[in-house]
């Protein structure tokens, strides 16, 4: 603490500020007057170029240019300089206000947040160097495009420094609706991806699907799996979910997707859920071994006495699994019926012929093969409605199959995919409930598989993966992006503690008989308290990267980037096509009128 008497210091401060202000205004005013007087003398031929004496030019111009006319000197050394100075001051003030307050531009820096040197591994030079070491195809390149080096997250707030996550990072983004998760994260990442891209979503028109459809078709084939007709897309592919179910583990994973899509994490451990999932896995295994379509399991679930799956399992050397299935079938009827009914509910989406057509062989329609996809530059859009039950199970199963195929290919290629695969799991808690996704996070990045799981809140993730699972995924994510709209007070306070404290200078003034004294002390305050995190403006986000200070980002929405007009036009065309297909489906056909008649 330090103190100082204040008998005349305030007066000195005011006088100094007045002097500096007068100098800041007077010097340019006098300089303009000197220039104006010289130009007048030169143009009228009434004098020579006078030396630089700005004070005389402003106050006594007749001494510098005695031959010039009084009126012309008054105009060029008094009137015009004053007007020009006022205009410059107004323009400077407008620029400063725009710089300070412009929407979508650079935001005001927050004291205590990361500066460029604190997040150097996420900036251009370090990201490019890292990309050369991770991607053999880039080692000899003289110049690396930013898109080939990492995924853009935004700019460091108030600067032009681009912040990118590298192609060994795995990310979790928690962003409320309309906070920029699609426009500033999903779409730019997809458009810039150097390799294959997987996107899960519950929307089509006006979303990432329409924005990226044409652009990604230029770099590779676009596959769209839309079993619930969100985009009303024509079925141009089918995928065999049983291709990876020819082992007990593979069949168990597939059954687990049906379980996760139907039951929250807190309920998956009860007797009926586990028993129903076990029966489902046994029947899926039998169908896969006998190369039957997945829809055959619905017949077996409807008729438990059918011995076909038992015979298939025995014939393929799975006697123990067959014995388990037989024990359930021949058990107490009320227990057996309850187990089978549970399994039927999990797989009920397969009863819908429109949904089943996407996962059963289709004549003259190409099969989507994950092993081929991960070595391409293709794009896979997986669309499903919220709460899609068994339909979202198929979406999760397909996404899981692609990531596992990518892992296998990475192992064959020496450990990593080059170019890397980007997996954007938008609305993951609604349409892509991969039960062991938190465990996958521990190794996907090291394989060149870059997942970005986008959630609306932390609690949404807890509902799907449980407290332990969500905590595990949060801890394993090397990059966390937090957008605006965080209304969970506990999570906001947790973030506030993670961001930390900083020293704040506090000034106090006291007045006594001997005069006024000022004391300065230091105290610690939260860099960003919970209420400030909740009030993050749209267009801003927090970036928490492993081993670095928390950074404030200015997001970069796709519509503010070069080429946005062309993308917007393509997105509008794709949205209109979706609307046209939806209307066409709702319009009654000639056959409908004849049948009604």
UniProtKB/TrEMBL annotation:
It is found in: Cell membrane. Gene3D superfamilies: P-loop containing nucleotide triphosphate hydrolases. The keyword Transmembrane applies. Signal peptide: none annotated. Its main location: membrane. It is a multi-pass membrane protein. InterPro entries: P-loop_NTPase (IPR027417), T4SS-coupling_protein (IPR051539), TraG-D_C (IPR032689). The keyword Metal-binding does not apply. Keywords: Cell membrane, Membrane, Transmembrane, Transmembrane helix. The chain crosses the membrane at residues 12-35, 79-99. One of its GO terms (cellular component) is plasma membrane. Residues 420-538 form the TraD/TraG TraM recognition site domain. This is TraD/TraG TraM recognition site domain-containing protein. It comes from Streptomyces filamentosus.
């Amino acid at each position: 603490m330090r103190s100082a008497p204040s008998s005349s210091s305030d007066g000195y401060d005011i006088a100094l500020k007045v002097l500096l202000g007068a100098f800041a205004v007077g010097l340019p005013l006098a300089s303009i007057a000197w220039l104006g007087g010289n130009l007048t003398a030169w143009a009228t031929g009434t004098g020579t170029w006078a030396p630089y004496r700005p004070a005389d030019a402003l106050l006594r111009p007749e001494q510098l240019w005695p031959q010039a006319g009084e009126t012309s000197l008054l105009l060029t050394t008094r009137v015009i300089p004053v007007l020009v100075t006022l205009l410059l001051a107004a323009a400077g003030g407008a620029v400063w206000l725009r710089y300070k307050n412009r929407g979508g531009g650079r935001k005001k820096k927050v004291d205590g947040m990361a500066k460029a040197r604190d997040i150097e591994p996420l900036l251009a030079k370090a990201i490019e160097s890292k990309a050369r070491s991770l991607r053999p195809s880039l080692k000899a390149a003289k110049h690396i495009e930013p898109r080939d080096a990492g995924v853009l997250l935004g700019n460091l707030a108030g600067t032009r420094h681009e912040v990118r996550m590298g192609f060994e990072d795995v990310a979790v983004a928690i962003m409320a609706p309309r906070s920029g998760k699609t426009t500033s994260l999903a779409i730019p990442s997809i458009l810039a991806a150097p390799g294959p891209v997987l996107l899960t979503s519950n929307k089509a028109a006006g979303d990432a699907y329409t924005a990226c459809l044409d652009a990604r078709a230029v770099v590779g084939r676009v596959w769209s799996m839309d079993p619930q007709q969100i985009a009303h897309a024509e079925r141009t592919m089918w995928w065999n979910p049983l291709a990876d179910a020819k082992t007990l583990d593979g069949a168990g994973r597939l059954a687990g997707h049906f379980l996760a899509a139907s039951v929250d994490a807190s309920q998956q451990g009860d007797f009926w859920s586990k028993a129903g999932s076990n029966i489902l896995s046994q029947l899926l295994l039998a169908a896969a071994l006998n190369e039957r379509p997945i829809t055959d399991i619905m017949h077996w679930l409807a008729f438990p006495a059918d011995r076909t799956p038992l015979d298939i399992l025995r014939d393929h050397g799975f006697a123990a699994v067959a014995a388990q299935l037989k024990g359930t079938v021949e058990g107490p009827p009320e227990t057996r019926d309850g187990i089978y009914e549970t399994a039927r509910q999990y797989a009920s989406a397969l009863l819908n012929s429109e949904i089943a057509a996407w996962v059963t062989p289709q004549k003259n329609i190409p099969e989507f093969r994950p092993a081929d996809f991960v070595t391409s530059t293709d794009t896979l859009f997986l669309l499903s409605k919220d709460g899609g039950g068994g339909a979202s199970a198929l979406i999760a199963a397909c996404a899981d199959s692609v990531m596992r195929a990518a892992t296998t290919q990475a192992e064959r290629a020496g450990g990593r995919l080059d170019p890397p695969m980007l997996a954007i799991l938008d609305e993951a808690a609604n349409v892509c409930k991969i039960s062991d996704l938190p465990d996958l996070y521990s190794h996907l990045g090291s394989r060149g598989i870059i997942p970005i799981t986008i959630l609306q809140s932390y609690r949404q993730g807890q509902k799907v993966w449980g407290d332990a699972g969500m905590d595990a995924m949060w801890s394993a994510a090397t990059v966390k992006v937090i957008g605006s709209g965080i209304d969970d007070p506990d999570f906001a306070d947790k973030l506030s503690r993670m961001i930390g404290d900083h020293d704040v200078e506090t000034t106090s003034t006291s007045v006594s008989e001997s005069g006024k004294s000022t004391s300065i002390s230091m105290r610690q305050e939260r860099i960003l308290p919970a209420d400030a995190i909740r009030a993050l403006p749209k267009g801003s986000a927090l970036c928490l990267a492993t081993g670095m200070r928390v950074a404030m980002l200015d997001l970069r929405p796709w519509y503010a980037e070069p080429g946005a007009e062309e993308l917007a036009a393509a997105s509008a065309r794709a949205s209109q096509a979706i609307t046209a297909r939806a209307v066409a489906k709702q319009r009654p056909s000639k056959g409908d009128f004849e049948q009604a008649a």
